[in-house]
Design goal:
The chain has one domain: Alpha-Beta Barrel (TIM Barrel). It is about 40% helix and about 15% strand. The protein has an eight-stranded parallel β-barrel with strand order 1-2-3-4-5-7-12-13, surrounded by four helices. α12 packs parallel to α13. It is globular. About 50% of the residues are buried. The protein binds 2-(hydroxymethyl)phenyl 6-O-phosphono-beta-D-glucopyranoside. 2-(hydroxymethyl)phenyl 6-O-phosphono-beta-D-glucopyranoside binds next to loops.
Protein backbone atom coordinates (compact mmCIF):
# COMPACT_ATOMS: atom_id res chain seq x y z
CA UNK A 1 0.00 0.00 0.00
CA UNK A 2 1.19 3.51 -0.80
CA UNK A 3 0.69 6.18 1.80
CA UNK A 4 -0.97 9.30 0.51
CA UNK A 5 -2.00 12.56 2.16
CA UNK A 6 -5.37 12.92 3.89
CA UNK A 7 -7.64 15.28 1.97
CA UNK A 8 -9.43 18.02 3.89
CA UNK A 9 -12.81 17.42 5.56
CA UNK A 10 -15.70 17.74 3.14
CA UNK A 11 -13.56 16.82 0.13
CA UNK A 12 -15.86 15.63 -2.64
CA UNK A 13 -14.79 12.13 -3.68
CA UNK A 14 -17.05 10.75 -6.37
CA UNK A 15 -17.33 9.73 -9.99
CA UNK A 16 -18.17 11.38 -13.32
CA UNK A 17 -20.24 10.57 -16.40
CA UNK A 18 -22.16 12.41 -19.11
CA UNK A 19 -25.82 11.88 -19.98
CA UNK A 20 -25.38 10.84 -23.61
CA UNK A 21 -22.62 8.34 -22.82
CA UNK A 22 -24.62 6.26 -20.37
CA UNK A 23 -28.33 7.06 -20.18
CA UNK A 24 -29.58 5.41 -23.35
CA UNK A 25 -33.35 5.96 -23.63
CA UNK A 26 -32.50 8.33 -26.48
CA UNK A 27 -36.07 8.68 -27.75
CA UNK A 28 -38.22 8.11 -24.67
CA UNK A 29 -40.38 10.47 -22.58
CA UNK A 30 -40.31 13.22 -25.18
CA UNK A 31 -36.53 13.44 -25.63
CA UNK A 32 -35.35 15.05 -28.88
CA UNK A 33 -32.42 14.05 -31.09
CA UNK A 34 -29.03 15.38 -30.04
CA UNK A 35 -25.70 15.49 -31.82
CA UNK A 36 -24.68 12.35 -29.93
CA UNK A 37 -27.67 10.51 -31.41
CA UNK A 38 -26.40 10.90 -34.99
CA UNK A 39 -22.86 9.74 -34.29
CA UNK A 40 -22.06 6.19 -35.35
CA UNK A 41 -19.70 3.78 -33.62
CA UNK A 42 -16.01 4.10 -34.46
CA UNK A 43 -13.14 1.97 -33.20
CA UNK A 44 -9.63 2.47 -31.88
CA UNK A 45 -8.07 4.55 -34.67
CA UNK A 46 -11.31 4.68 -36.70
CA UNK A 47 -13.25 7.93 -36.22
CA UNK A 48 -16.99 8.04 -35.68
CA UNK A 49 -19.19 9.25 -38.54
CA UNK A 50 -21.94 11.82 -38.32
CA UNK A 51 -25.05 10.99 -40.31
CA UNK A 52 -27.64 13.47 -41.52
CA UNK A 53 -30.28 12.41 -39.02
CA UNK A 54 -30.79 8.92 -37.62
CA UNK A 55 -30.41 6.40 -40.47
CA UNK A 56 -31.65 2.84 -40.77
CA UNK A 57 -28.85 0.26 -40.62
CA UNK A 58 -26.28 2.45 -38.83
CA UNK A 59 -25.00 1.70 -35.32
CA UNK A 60 -25.52 4.52 -32.80
CA UNK A 61 -24.09 3.45 -29.43
CA UNK A 62 -25.38 6.50 -27.56
CA UNK A 63 -28.92 5.27 -28.21
CA UNK A 64 -28.45 2.66 -25.49
CA UNK A 65 -25.35 3.81 -23.53
CA UNK A 66 -25.22 1.53 -20.50
CA UNK A 67 -28.98 1.90 -19.89
CA UNK A 68 -28.50 4.14 -16.86
CA UNK A 69 -31.85 5.76 -17.66
CA UNK A 70 -33.49 2.58 -16.38
CA UNK A 71 -30.75 1.22 -14.09
CA UNK A 72 -29.79 4.28 -12.03
CA UNK A 73 -31.34 3.13 -8.71
CA UNK A 74 -29.09 0.05 -8.76
CA UNK A 75 -26.08 2.11 -9.87
CA UNK A 76 -26.58 4.78 -7.21
CA UNK A 77 -26.50 2.02 -4.58
CA UNK A 78 -23.12 0.86 -5.88
CA UNK A 79 -21.81 4.45 -5.89
CA UNK A 80 -22.95 4.79 -2.28
CA UNK A 81 -21.23 1.52 -1.40
CA UNK A 82 -17.98 2.90 -2.83
CA UNK A 83 -18.45 5.89 -0.54
CA UNK A 84 -19.15 8.57 -3.15
CA UNK A 85 -19.88 12.00 -1.72
CA UNK A 86 -20.83 13.40 -5.13
CA UNK A 87 -21.71 12.25 -8.63
CA UNK A 88 -21.04 14.34 -11.70
CA UNK A 89 -23.43 13.93 -14.59
CA UNK A 90 -24.89 16.20 -17.25
CA UNK A 91 -28.44 17.10 -18.12
CA UNK A 92 -29.35 16.07 -21.65
CA UNK A 93 -30.50 19.37 -23.17
CA UNK A 94 -32.85 17.42 -25.48
CA UNK A 95 -34.76 15.90 -22.56
CA UNK A 96 -35.63 19.42 -21.40
CA UNK A 97 -35.94 21.19 -24.76
CA UNK A 98 -36.22 18.46 -27.43
CA UNK A 99 -35.51 20.82 -30.33
CA UNK A 100 -33.72 23.50 -28.32
CA UNK A 101 -35.75 26.49 -29.53
CA UNK A 102 -39.03 25.82 -27.68
CA UNK A 103 -40.16 28.17 -24.94
CA UNK A 104 -41.84 25.53 -22.74
CA UNK A 105 -39.75 22.70 -21.28
CA UNK A 106 -40.64 19.01 -21.43
CA UNK A 107 -41.96 18.06 -17.99
CA UNK A 108 -41.11 14.34 -18.36
CA UNK A 109 -37.46 15.25 -18.93
CA UNK A 110 -37.38 17.55 -15.91
CA UNK A 111 -38.97 14.83 -13.81
CA UNK A 112 -36.33 12.26 -14.76
CA UNK A 113 -33.57 14.47 -13.27
CA UNK A 114 -35.71 15.23 -10.21
CA UNK A 115 -35.99 11.50 -9.57
CA UNK A 116 -32.30 10.86 -10.26
CA UNK A 117 -31.13 13.71 -8.01
CA UNK A 118 -33.54 12.69 -5.23
CA UNK A 119 -32.26 9.13 -5.37
CA UNK A 120 -28.63 10.29 -5.21
CA UNK A 121 -29.40 12.64 -2.31
CA UNK A 122 -31.16 9.83 -0.44
CA UNK A 123 -27.78 8.05 -0.46
CA UNK A 124 -25.95 11.18 0.75
CA UNK A 125 -24.49 11.78 -2.72
CA UNK A 126 -24.70 15.31 -4.07
CA UNK A 127 -25.19 15.75 -7.81
CA UNK A 128 -22.61 17.88 -9.66
CA UNK A 129 -24.07 18.95 -12.98
CA UNK A 130 -22.67 19.92 -16.38
CA UNK A 131 -25.14 21.84 -18.52
CA UNK A 132 -23.73 21.14 -21.97
CA UNK A 133 -21.66 18.00 -22.32
CA UNK A 134 -21.17 17.33 -26.07
CA UNK A 135 -24.87 17.11 -26.92
CA UNK A 136 -26.51 20.14 -28.41
CA UNK A 137 -30.00 19.46 -29.84
CA UNK A 138 -29.53 18.35 -33.44
CA UNK A 139 -32.29 20.71 -34.55
CA UNK A 140 -30.14 23.64 -33.41
CA UNK A 141 -27.31 22.31 -35.58
CA UNK A 142 -29.50 21.97 -38.65
CA UNK A 143 -31.69 25.05 -38.31
CA UNK A 144 -29.22 27.54 -36.81
CA UNK A 145 -25.72 26.22 -37.53
CA UNK A 146 -25.08 25.60 -33.84
CA UNK A 147 -22.89 28.14 -32.05
CA UNK A 148 -21.90 29.84 -35.30
CA UNK A 149 -25.16 31.69 -34.60
CA UNK A 150 -25.53 34.32 -31.86
CA UNK A 151 -29.11 33.14 -31.25
CA UNK A 152 -27.65 30.09 -29.52
CA UNK A 153 -26.79 32.28 -26.55
CA UNK A 154 -30.48 32.78 -25.80
CA UNK A 155 -31.34 29.09 -26.24
CA UNK A 156 -28.55 28.05 -23.89
CA UNK A 157 -29.38 30.64 -21.26
CA UNK A 158 -33.05 29.62 -21.34
CA UNK A 159 -32.10 25.98 -20.84
CA UNK A 160 -29.69 26.91 -18.03
CA UNK A 161 -32.24 29.11 -16.28
CA UNK A 162 -34.97 26.46 -16.39
CA UNK A 163 -32.77 23.79 -14.82
CA UNK A 164 -31.14 26.16 -12.30
CA UNK A 165 -34.57 27.11 -11.12
CA UNK A 166 -35.95 23.59 -11.05
CA UNK A 167 -33.01 22.04 -9.16
CA UNK A 168 -31.99 25.03 -7.05
CA UNK A 169 -32.41 23.09 -3.80
CA UNK A 170 -30.84 19.86 -5.06
CA UNK A 171 -27.69 20.91 -6.90
CA UNK A 172 -25.00 23.31 -5.70
CA UNK A 173 -22.07 22.63 -8.08
CA UNK A 174 -22.60 23.33 -11.78
CA UNK A 175 -20.47 23.62 -14.90
CA UNK A 176 -21.46 25.39 -18.10
CA UNK A 177 -19.66 23.82 -21.12
CA UNK A 178 -17.75 20.55 -20.92
CA UNK A 179 -14.16 20.75 -22.18
CA UNK A 180 -14.86 24.03 -23.94
CA UNK A 181 -11.27 24.08 -25.19
CA UNK A 182 -11.40 20.64 -26.79
CA UNK A 183 -12.31 22.27 -30.08
CA UNK A 184 -8.89 23.86 -30.62
CA UNK A 185 -7.79 20.67 -32.36
CA UNK A 186 -8.91 20.05 -35.88
CA UNK A 187 -9.80 16.47 -36.62
CA UNK A 188 -12.64 15.94 -38.98
CA UNK A 189 -15.45 16.02 -38.00
CA UNK A 190 -16.30 16.06 -34.35
CA UNK A 191 -14.53 18.34 -31.88
CA UNK A 192 -16.36 21.29 -33.39
CA UNK A 193 -19.58 19.39 -33.82
CA UNK A 194 -19.48 17.91 -30.33
CA UNK A 195 -18.56 21.14 -28.60
CA UNK A 196 -20.36 23.75 -30.68
CA UNK A 197 -22.68 22.08 -33.14
CA UNK A 198 -20.66 23.23 -36.15
CA UNK A 199 -20.46 21.06 -39.23
CA UNK A 200 -17.64 22.33 -41.39
CA UNK A 201 -15.66 20.90 -44.26
CA UNK A 202 -11.91 21.08 -44.64
CA UNK A 203 -12.34 24.09 -47.01
CA UNK A 204 -14.12 26.24 -44.46
CA UNK A 205 -12.16 28.59 -42.24
CA UNK A 206 -12.66 26.30 -39.29
CA UNK A 207 -10.28 28.21 -37.06
CA UNK A 208 -12.16 31.50 -37.31
CA UNK A 209 -15.44 29.60 -36.88
CA UNK A 210 -14.05 27.94 -33.76
CA UNK A 211 -13.03 31.25 -32.17
CA UNK A 212 -16.40 32.79 -33.02
CA UNK A 213 -18.38 29.85 -31.63
CA UNK A 214 -16.22 29.79 -28.50
CA UNK A 215 -16.86 33.49 -28.00
CA UNK A 216 -20.63 32.99 -28.13
CA UNK A 217 -20.29 30.08 -25.70
CA UNK A 218 -18.23 32.17 -23.31
CA UNK A 219 -20.84 34.91 -23.41
CA UNK A 220 -23.59 32.32 -22.89
CA UNK A 221 -21.62 30.88 -19.97
CA UNK A 222 -21.14 34.31 -18.38
CA UNK A 223 -24.87 35.05 -18.68
CA UNK A 224 -25.71 31.66 -17.20
CA UNK A 225 -23.35 32.30 -14.27
CA UNK A 226 -25.17 35.57 -13.55
CA UNK A 227 -28.60 33.97 -13.93
CA UNK A 228 -27.59 31.10 -11.63
CA UNK A 229 -26.31 33.38 -8.90
CA UNK A 230 -29.54 35.38 -9.06
CA UNK A 231 -31.56 32.17 -8.58
CA UNK A 232 -29.43 30.85 -5.73
CA UNK A 233 -26.49 32.87 -4.39
CA UNK A 234 -25.02 29.66 -2.93
CA UNK A 235 -24.53 28.11 -6.36
CA UNK A 236 -20.96 27.34 -7.31
CA UNK A 237 -20.77 27.56 -11.09
CA UNK A 238 -17.56 26.50 -12.75
CA UNK A 239 -16.02 26.27 -16.17
CA UNK A 240 -14.70 22.97 -17.50
CA UNK A 241 -11.46 22.77 -19.43
CA UNK A 242 -9.65 19.74 -20.84
CA UNK A 243 -6.28 20.19 -19.16
CA UNK A 244 -3.45 18.54 -21.08
CA UNK A 245 -0.32 20.56 -20.33
CA UNK A 246 1.99 21.00 -23.30
CA UNK A 247 5.73 20.75 -22.67
CA UNK A 248 8.67 21.89 -24.82
CA UNK A 249 10.59 18.95 -26.25
CA UNK A 250 13.94 20.46 -25.17
CA UNK A 251 15.39 23.58 -23.51
CA UNK A 252 15.93 25.09 -26.96
CA UNK A 253 14.39 28.59 -26.77
CA UNK A 254 12.28 27.99 -29.88
CA UNK A 255 10.80 24.86 -28.27
CA UNK A 256 10.02 26.76 -25.09
CA UNK A 257 8.35 29.63 -26.98
CA UNK A 258 6.28 27.18 -29.03
CA UNK A 259 5.13 25.40 -25.86
CA UNK A 260 4.16 28.76 -24.35
CA UNK A 261 2.08 29.63 -27.41
CA UNK A 262 0.56 26.14 -27.36
CA UNK A 263 -0.55 26.67 -23.76
CA UNK A 264 -1.97 30.09 -24.66
CA UNK A 265 -3.92 28.64 -27.57
CA UNK A 266 -5.34 25.77 -25.52
CA UNK A 267 -6.11 27.67 -22.32
CA UNK A 268 -7.23 31.21 -23.25
CA UNK A 269 -10.78 29.93 -22.69
CA UNK A 270 -9.88 29.63 -19.00
CA UNK A 271 -8.51 33.18 -18.98
CA UNK A 272 -11.88 34.48 -20.20
CA UNK A 273 -13.92 32.26 -17.86
CA UNK A 274 -11.83 33.00 -14.76
CA UNK A 275 -10.45 36.50 -15.28
CA UNK A 276 -13.30 37.86 -17.38
CA UNK A 277 -11.12 39.10 -20.21
CA UNK A 278 -9.36 38.06 -23.36
CA UNK A 279 -5.60 37.65 -23.00
CA UNK A 280 -3.60 40.35 -24.81
CA UNK A 281 -2.10 38.08 -27.46
CA UNK A 282 -5.46 36.94 -28.84
CA UNK A 283 -6.83 40.16 -30.44
CA UNK A 284 -3.36 40.52 -32.02
CA UNK A 285 -3.67 37.02 -33.37
CA UNK A 286 -7.16 37.71 -34.81
CA UNK A 287 -5.75 40.83 -36.48
CA UNK A 288 -2.74 39.02 -37.92
CA UNK A 289 -4.94 36.23 -39.27
CA UNK A 290 -7.53 38.64 -40.64
CA UNK A 291 -10.33 37.09 -38.57
CA UNK A 292 -13.35 39.35 -38.58
CA UNK A 293 -14.83 38.62 -35.17
CA UNK A 294 -18.25 39.53 -33.81
CA UNK A 295 -17.20 40.59 -30.30
CA UNK A 296 -19.09 43.61 -29.01
CA UNK A 297 -18.38 45.97 -26.12
CA UNK A 298 -21.52 44.64 -24.43
CA UNK A 299 -20.12 41.10 -24.75
CA UNK A 300 -16.90 42.16 -23.07
CA UNK A 301 -18.86 43.67 -20.17
CA UNK A 302 -20.85 40.44 -19.87
CA UNK A 303 -17.67 38.37 -19.73
CA UNK A 304 -16.31 40.57 -16.96
CA UNK A 305 -19.55 40.29 -14.95
CA UNK A 306 -19.92 36.52 -15.34
CA UNK A 307 -16.67 35.00 -14.16
CA UNK A 308 -16.86 31.48 -12.77
CA UNK A 309 -16.55 30.36 -9.15
CA UNK A 310 -14.15 27.48 -9.71
CA UNK A 311 -12.10 25.72 -12.34
CA UNK A 312 -13.49 22.31 -13.25
CA UNK A 313 -11.10 20.31 -15.38
CA UNK A 314 -10.37 16.93 -16.84
CA UNK A 315 -6.89 15.48 -16.79
CA UNK A 316 -5.85 12.41 -18.74
CA UNK A 317 -2.49 13.12 -20.35
CA UNK A 318 0.14 15.67 -21.30
CA UNK A 319 1.49 16.65 -24.72
CA UNK A 320 4.82 17.83 -26.14
CA UNK A 321 5.64 20.27 -28.92
CA UNK A 322 8.72 21.75 -30.56
CA UNK A 323 9.50 25.05 -32.24
CA UNK A 324 10.50 25.96 -35.75
CA UNK A 325 13.81 27.82 -35.84
CA UNK A 326 13.51 31.35 -37.18
CA UNK A 327 9.69 31.32 -37.12
CA UNK A 328 8.61 34.51 -35.36
CA UNK A 329 4.91 33.68 -35.32
CA UNK A 330 4.86 30.37 -33.48
CA UNK A 331 1.46 29.53 -34.86
CA UNK A 332 1.08 26.30 -32.95
CA UNK A 333 -1.47 24.02 -34.57
CA UNK A 334 -3.02 21.08 -32.80
CA UNK A 335 -2.53 18.17 -33.39
CA UNK A 336 0.04 18.66 -36.21
CA UNK A 337 2.64 20.25 -33.92
CA UNK A 338 2.58 17.52 -31.28
CA UNK A 339 5.60 15.25 -30.94
CA UNK A 340 6.08 12.13 -28.85
CA UNK A 341 7.25 12.36 -25.27
CA UNK A 342 10.18 9.96 -24.95
CA UNK A 343 9.83 9.82 -21.15
CA UNK A 344 6.29 8.52 -20.62
CA UNK A 345 4.24 5.40 -21.38
CA UNK A 346 1.03 5.39 -23.38
CA UNK A 347 -2.37 3.72 -23.07
CA UNK A 348 -3.63 1.37 -25.80
CA UNK A 349 -5.29 4.43 -27.35
CA UNK A 350 -2.01 6.37 -27.41
CA UNK A 351 -2.84 8.65 -24.45
CA UNK A 352 0.41 9.60 -22.68
CA UNK A 353 0.42 8.66 -19.01
CA UNK A 354 1.90 11.42 -16.87
CA UNK A 355 0.86 11.83 -13.21
CA UNK A 356 3.40 14.59 -12.57
CA UNK A 357 1.69 16.54 -15.35
CA UNK A 358 -1.40 16.69 -13.14
CA UNK A 359 0.51 18.31 -10.29
CA UNK A 360 2.25 20.63 -12.74
CA UNK A 361 -1.09 21.67 -14.28
CA UNK A 362 -2.71 22.29 -10.88
CA UNK A 363 0.14 24.59 -9.91
CA UNK A 364 -0.01 26.36 -13.27
CA UNK A 365 -3.75 26.99 -12.97
CA UNK A 366 -3.51 28.09 -9.35
CA UNK A 367 -0.92 30.73 -10.22
CA UNK A 368 -2.80 31.91 -13.28
CA UNK A 369 -6.49 31.80 -12.36
CA UNK A 370 -6.46 32.06 -8.56
CA UNK A 371 -9.61 29.97 -8.07
CA UNK A 372 -10.53 26.74 -6.31
CA UNK A 373 -10.18 23.71 -8.57
CA UNK A 374 -12.28 20.60 -9.06
CA UNK A 375 -10.88 17.55 -10.89
CA UNK A 376 -14.05 16.42 -12.61
CA UNK A 377 -12.47 13.79 -14.87
CA UNK A 378 -9.39 11.59 -14.70
CA UNK A 379 -9.09 7.95 -15.61
CA UNK A 380 -7.71 5.15 -17.67
CA UNK A 381 -9.49 3.75 -20.72
CA UNK A 382 -8.44 0.13 -21.17
CA UNK A 383 -9.49 -3.25 -22.52
CA UNK A 384 -10.76 -5.20 -19.52
CA UNK A 385 -11.04 -8.97 -19.31
CA UNK A 386 -13.94 -10.44 -17.42
CA UNK A 387 -12.93 -13.78 -15.88
CA UNK A 388 -15.19 -16.83 -15.80
CA UNK A 389 -16.10 -16.08 -12.18
CA UNK A 390 -17.14 -12.53 -13.13
CA UNK A 391 -14.12 -10.76 -11.65
CA UNK A 392 -12.06 -8.14 -13.50
CA UNK A 393 -8.46 -7.77 -12.39
CA UNK A 394 -7.75 -4.19 -13.46
CA UNK A 395 -4.47 -3.63 -11.64
CA UNK A 396 -3.35 -1.30 -14.52
CA UNK A 397 -6.27 0.99 -13.67
CA UNK A 398 -5.49 0.93 -9.95
CA UNK A 399 -1.91 1.80 -10.71
CA UNK A 400 -2.94 4.74 -12.95
CA UNK A 401 -5.26 6.06 -10.25
CA UNK A 402 -2.76 5.54 -7.44
CA UNK A 403 -0.12 7.61 -9.23
CA UNK A 404 -2.53 10.36 -10.25
CA UNK A 405 -4.26 10.62 -6.89
CA UNK A 406 -0.87 10.86 -5.18
CA UNK A 407 0.16 13.67 -7.55
CA UNK A 408 -3.15 15.42 -6.83
CA UNK A 409 -2.62 15.06 -3.07
CA UNK A 410 0.89 16.46 -3.35
CA UNK A 411 -0.51 19.49 -5.18
CA UNK A 412 -2.91 20.01 -2.26
CA UNK A 413 -0.74 19.05 0.72
CA UNK A 414 2.61 20.34 -0.48
CA UNK A 415 1.76 23.08 -2.97
CA UNK A 416 -1.35 24.57 -1.35
CA UNK A 417 -3.77 24.10 -4.25
CA UNK A 418 -7.36 24.66 -3.15
CA UNK A 419 -9.18 21.54 -4.42
CA UNK A 420 -12.91 20.90 -4.03
CA UNK A 421 -13.04 17.28 -5.11
CA UNK A 422 -12.09 14.46 -7.41
CA UNK A 423 -14.50 12.56 -9.67
CA UNK A 424 -12.86 9.82 -11.80
CA UNK A 425 -14.26 9.56 -15.31
CA UNK A 426 -16.61 6.79 -16.31
CA UNK A 427 -16.87 5.39 -12.79
CA UNK A 428 -19.25 2.91 -14.40
CA UNK A 429 -18.42 1.62 -17.92
CA UNK A 430 -19.99 3.75 -20.63
CA UNK A 431 -19.68 4.69 -24.30
CA UNK A 432 -16.41 6.42 -25.24
CA UNK A 433 -16.81 9.96 -26.53
CA UNK A 434 -14.05 9.83 -29.12
CA UNK A 435 -14.53 6.31 -30.49
CA UNK A 436 -18.08 5.32 -29.51
CA UNK A 437 -16.71 2.07 -28.15
CA UNK A 438 -17.86 0.28 -25.05
CA UNK A 439 -14.57 -1.65 -25.16
CA UNK A 440 -12.64 1.44 -24.04
CA UNK A 441 -13.60 0.96 -20.42
CA UNK A 442 -13.00 3.34 -17.53
CA UNK A 443 -15.22 1.99 -14.78
CA UNK A 444 -14.85 0.65 -11.28
CA UNK A 445 -18.12 -1.05 -12.19
CA UNK A 446 -18.21 -3.39 -15.18
CA UNK A 447 -21.21 -3.32 -17.51
CA UNK A 448 -21.80 -6.45 -19.56
CA UNK A 449 -22.39 -4.87 -22.99
CA UNK A 450 -20.35 -4.80 -26.18
CA UNK A 451 -19.77 -2.18 -28.87
CA UNK A 452 -22.96 -3.18 -30.66
CA UNK A 453 -25.15 -3.04 -27.60
CA UNK A 454 -25.28 -6.80 -27.10
CA UNK A 455 -25.07 -8.23 -23.60
CA UNK A 456 -27.05 -8.52 -20.38
CA UNK A 457 -26.10 -4.98 -19.21
CA UNK A 458 -25.55 -6.54 -15.77
CA UNK A 459 -23.30 -4.61 -13.38
CA UNK A 460 -20.40 -6.13 -11.44
CA UNK A 461 -17.46 -4.86 -9.39
CA UNK A 462 -13.92 -4.74 -10.72
CA UNK A 463 -10.91 -5.00 -8.39
CA UNK A 464 -10.59 -1.21 -8.63
CA UNK A 465 -14.02 -0.88 -6.94
CA UNK A 466 -12.69 -2.15 -3.59
CA UNK A 467 -9.49 -0.18 -4.02
CA UNK A 468 -11.28 3.14 -4.59
CA UNK A 469 -13.65 2.39 -1.70
CA UNK A 470 -10.61 2.11 0.56
CA UNK A 471 -9.13 5.35 -0.82
CA UNK A 472 -12.33 7.23 0.00
CA UNK A 473 -12.74 5.58 3.40
CA UNK A 474 -9.24 6.73 4.36
CA UNK A 475 -9.76 10.26 2.95
CA UNK A 476 -7.04 9.57 0.42
CA UNK A 477 -4.43 8.19 2.78
CA UNK A 478 -4.48 4.50 1.76
CA UNK A 479 -3.58 4.36 -1.89
P1 LIG B 1 -12.93 8.98 -24.41
C1 LIG B 1 -10.20 14.17 -25.78
C2 LIG B 1 -9.14 14.42 -24.91
C3 LIG B 1 -9.36 14.46 -23.55
C4 LIG B 1 -10.64 14.25 -23.05
O1 LIG B 1 -12.56 10.23 -23.50
C5 LIG B 1 -11.69 14.01 -23.93
C6 LIG B 1 -11.48 13.98 -25.29
C7 LIG B 1 -12.60 13.76 -26.25
O2 LIG B 1 -12.88 12.43 -26.38
O3 LIG B 1 -12.98 13.87 -23.52
C8 LIG B 1 -13.35 13.75 -22.18
O4 LIG B 1 -14.31 8.59 -24.07
C9 LIG B 1 -14.84 13.96 -22.15
C10 LIG B 1 -15.63 12.71 -21.89
C11 LIG B 1 -14.89 11.53 -22.47
C12 LIG B 1 -13.60 11.39 -21.68
O5 LIG B 1 -12.82 12.55 -21.75
O6 LIG B 1 -12.80 9.48 -25.79
O7 LIG B 1 -15.25 15.00 -21.30
O8 LIG B 1 -16.91 12.90 -22.43
O9 LIG B 1 -15.60 10.36 -22.47
C13 LIG B 1 -12.74 10.21 -22.13
O10 LIG B 1 -11.96 7.92 -24.06
Amino acid sequence: MTKGYKMPKGFLWGGAVAAHQLEGGWDVDGKGVSIADVMTAGRNGVPRKVTDGVKEGEVYPNHWGNDFYHCYPEDDKLFAEMGFKCFRTSIAWTRIFPNGDETTPNEAGLKFYDDLFDDLLSHGIQPVVTLSHFEIPYHLVKAYGGFSNRKMIDFFVRFATVVFDRYKDKVKYWMTFNEINNQTAWSDPHPLLQNSGLQLGADDNWEQAMYQAAHYELVASALAVQAGHAINPDFQIGCMVAMCPIYPLTAKPADVMMAERAMQKRYWFGDVHCLGEYPKWLPKYFERKGFDMDITAADLATLKAGTVDYVGFSYYMSFVTKGRDGDQEYDFKEPDDFVENPYVEKSDWGWQIDPTGLRYAMNWMQDRWHLPQFIVENGFGAYDKKEADGSVHDDYRISYFRDHILAMEEAVALDGVDLIGYTPWGCIDLVSASTGEMAKRYGFIYVDADDNGHGSFDRSKKDSFDWFQQVIASDGEDL
